[in-house]
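Entry 14. Structure prediction run on the chain below.
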Amino acid sequence: MPALKGVGLLKGLGVTFKTMSRRAATRQYPHVKPDLPARSRGVIALIDENCTVCMLCSRECPDWCIYIDSHKETVAPKEGGRARTRNVLDRFAIDYALCMYCGICVEVCPFDALHWSPEFEYAEYDHESLTHEMDTLRQWAYTVPAPDPLEEGAVEPKEIESARKAREALAAKAAAAAEAQGRTTAPAAPAPAAAAAPAASASAAAPAAARAAPAEAPAAAAPATAPAEDVQVEPGIDQATYDRLVAAGEPERTARAKAKAAYMRKAKAEARAAAGGQAAAAAEAPAPVEASAAPETAQAPASVETPAAAPAAGQAPEGSGEPQGAAPDGGGEHLEVEIDQATFDRLIAAGESERTARAKAKAAYARKLRAQQRGES
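Output returned:
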C-alpha cells in the first residue's frame, strides 16, 4: 500500500510540538558550567611542598609523560651531627597530550603531592602547549576537594591521631607555662630588698648575676613565643595565616603547608631578636661590674695563668679541694680549668651553643697564656 503524502512531515511536526514545551537538554557552555561530580578525574594537580623528588611517579608512569628536574642542597648539620644533602624540586611538568589519566602517579605518591582535580578547561591550539609546568599544576591544586569525613565508628588514621595528641600536649604545656609564669612574676617585688645588701657581697655576686642572666632570659621569653592554648590545627602552624588562607579560598592542605612555613619564619625571627637583645644587654650590663671588681680581678690572671705559683702564694688553702688554676671568686660557677670565663660568658650571651663557647674560650685562654709567657721571657 503506498504511503500517504505528507505523513513524514506530520511526524516531524509532531516531534517538534512535543518538545516545544520541555526545557532544553543542552547547556550554553562556556557561559553555563556543567555540574561535575566532586571526584571527577579532570587533571592531575601538584602540591610542590610535599614533593621529595623520589621519582616514583615518573618511573611508574606508563606513558612517560612526567618530567622532573631537581638539584641537591647541603643542609646545615645540627650540633654534634653531620651535614646532609636533600633534593630540591626545580621542575615538575606533565604532558597532557600523552597522559591517559590512569591515575597511577596519584596512587604511588608516598607523600600526597599529586591529586585529582575536577578542572578540565586546559585546551590549547598546539601539542607543545599541552605540557603544563609546575605553576599551572599548583594553581589546579587549589580546586582539589577535601577528603571525605570518617564514617561513624571508623578507626582514626595515625596521622590525625598523632596530630591530635600533639595538639593536646601543646595546650597542656602552654597552660603549665602560663601558670609557671604567673608564679614567677608574683614574687618579683622583693628584688629591691636584695639590692640593699652590703657593698662587699653585691660586688662579689655581680659576676654571678651577669653569668646567670643569659641563661634565665630564654626561660622567661619562652612563654611569649609559645602558641596560644586554643590551637585548632596542629603544633607548629601559624593560626592567623591558616585562617586567612582558608578564608581566601585556599584548600586546607595548602593553607596548612603555608602556615607551617610562616610559623617557622616567625620563630626564627623571634629567636634572632631574643639573641640580639641578650647580646646588647650583656654588652651594657658588665661595664660597671668590671669597674667595681677591678681590684679583685687584677689578681685573677696571675692565679689562673701561673698554676705553679699558686701554692707558693698561699692561695691553695682557700679551695684545697679545687684544682689549681680555678678562679678564686667564681666558686662553683666556673665551668672548668683553662677556660677564659669572660670569653665564655660573652659567647653564651651572643647565642652560641655551650660546646662552641667552651672550645673558643679554651682557645682564648691558651692565647692569653702564651702572650703572658712571651711577656715574662
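The chain has 15 helices and five strands.
Filed with the rest of this week's runs.
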